[in-house]
Amino acid sequence: MNFRTIIEPFRIKSVESIKFTTREERERALREAGHNVFLLHAEDVLIDLLTDSGTGAMSAAQWGALMQGDESYAGSRSFYRFRDVVQALTGFRHIIPTHQGRAAERILFHTVLEAGQIVPSNNHFDTTRANIEVEGAEARDLVIAEGRVPAARHRFKGNVDLEALEGLLAAHGARVPLVMVTITNNSGGGQPVSLANLRGLRAICDRYAKPLILDACRFAENAYFIKLREDGQQDRTPREIAREVFSLADGCTMSAKKDGLANIGGFLALNNDNWAERARNLLILTEGFPTYGGLAGYDLEAIARGLEEVVEEPYLRYRLRSTEYLGDKLTAAGVPIIQPPGGHAIYLDARALLPQVPPLAYPGIALLNALYVEAGIRGVEIGTVMFGQHPDGTEAPAAMDLVRLAIPRRVYTQSHIDYVAEAVIHVASRREQLSGYRIVKGARVLRHFTATFEPLAADSSTGT
Ligand code: F0G
C-alpha cells in the first residue's frame, strides 16, 4: 500500500481518562506548586509532555510478559531472557541491570572516575552531568557548532565536534578516562548522531586508547534517523543500524524508560571485565544482586519485549513522524523551535520567543507556566534553571533557554497533538504579556526538580 498518511501502528484496547480543569483551578494549582510544574499533581495536567521517560504505553505482549516474571532473588529466568535480548542487540559482554539510567551512570562514574578528570560528550544530560560532577570531575560538551544554534538546520545536529575532541585528547588526554556520546542528543534537542560521526569517534578513541561509552537511551530513534538521512543506509533495518552503532562502542548506559518501552528500568553494559566486576560490587551495595539490579523479574520481562518492539520499522516511522508533525505545525505558524524537529520532543526556543525576559529571569519557566495555565499542558524547562547553576554556587545563563514538549511513546493520538499545536500557537500570539520569575528556594544540585518560583512584576522582568 502506498497511501501517504502515516497512522498510529496500533489499536487501543485500554484507555485512561484525562481530567479537564478550569483556568482558575490551574492558576491555583500552579501557585500551590510554587510555580514549578514538577510539583503539580499530575492529575491536574490535561496533556503531560513533561517527559517521554517511563510514560509510554506498554503493548499487550509486554503486559502478558509481566506474568512470566520470575521473581527469584538470584539467577532468575527473567534476567537471562533480558540479558540475552540486550546482548543480541548490543553485543556487549557484561549486562548489568539497574533501576533506571541514572543508576547506571552513577555506578559507572563512581567506579571509573577520579576528581579532576574530564568526560567529553556531545551534550551530557542533566543527571549524567550531575553524576560526573559529584565525583569531582568535569562534564564537557563538545557538540558541533550547529548543535548550539536552535534555528540552524543540520541532518545530524547531535554530532560531536571531532576536531575539538581530538584537541582535548591531545592537550589533556591523561585526564580523560572515557569518551561519551548521547544518542539521540537530548539536551541539544533530541538530535541524532550520524554513523559517520560515530565511526570517527571510534577512530579517535582507538588512537588515544580511550573507551567509548554510549548514553543509549534513544538508540532506536537515532538508528531510524540514520536510515532516513544518512547516505547508503536506506536499505538497512533499524536493528542492523543499531547493532553497528553498539559495535562501535565499548559499553553503554541505558534508560529502558525511553527506547526500552518500559515504565522503569535500565542497564549498564560493558566490555571491560575489570570495570564490570567493580560495577557489580557497587551494584550490590545500592541496587541489588546483579541478576535483578533493583528491578522486579517482571520489569526485566517487559524491557526484553520492549527492546524487540522498539526497533520495528512501522513503530519508528510513526514515532519520528508524529514528533515532526507537531514541529511542522509550529514552524508554519512562526513559533521558533529547534530545527529540525528531534526524535522524542519539540523544543520551543523560549529565549527567542520572549526577548523581554532575560535568561536570569528564566524565559523557559515563563513560557512553560503560561502553557499550563492556558491549556493544561505540561512541558519542561531545559535552560538556565536546569543548567545555569555551577558547582561553586554561581549562576550564569545556559547556552539556550528551551521548553521541551516530550512526546510519550504510543500514548497520545494525532488530535491530542493538534490541540497542543493550537495551544502553543495561542500562547505565542500573546507573548508580549509574559514576564519572568525569580527563584524563592533552590537546591544546590539538580535544582529544577524542586525549586520554587515567584513571578516578577511585568515591569521589573527586564532587571535581575
Ligand atoms: N541520559 C539521557 C539522554 C536522558 O534523557 C535521561 C533521562 C537519562 C540519561 C537518565 O535516565 O531517567 O532513567 O535515570 N531523561 C529523562 C528526560 C528524565 O525527561 O529526558 P533515567
Estimate the mean pLDDT confidence: 95
Task: Kindly report how far apart the N and C termini lie.
Answer: 58 Å
Q: Supply the number of helical segments.
A: 16
| Uncertain residue ranges | none
Q: Structural class of the helices, strands and pairings?
A: alpha/beta
Strand segment count? 14
Q: What is the percentage of strand-forming residues?
A: 5-15%
What's the gyration radius in Å? Answer: 22 Å
* Helix-residue proportion: 25-40%
Strand arrangement in the largest pleated sheet: 2-8-7-6-5
Topology pattern, helix = H, strand = E? HEHHEHEHEHEHEHHEEHHHEHHEEHEHEE
What compounds are bound to the protein? ligand F0G
For the biggest sheet, the summary is: 5 strands, mixed
Taken from the alpha-carbon principal axes, the silhouette is globular
What would your notes on this structure say?
- With 464 residues, the chain is of the alpha/beta class.
- The chain is 39% helix and 12% strand.
- It has a 5-stranded mixed sheet, sandwiched between helices. A 3-stranded antiparallel sheet has the order 9-12-11.
- Helix 1 packs across helix 14, helix 3 packs parallel to helix 11 and helix 4 packs parallel to helix 5.
- The radius of gyration is 22 Å and the shape is globular.
- The site of ligand F0G has 16 residues, from helix 4 and helix 5.
Summarize the structure.
This protein is α/β, with parallel strands linked by helices. It is built from 16 helices and 14 strands. The site of ligand F0G has 16 residues, from helix 4 and helix 5.
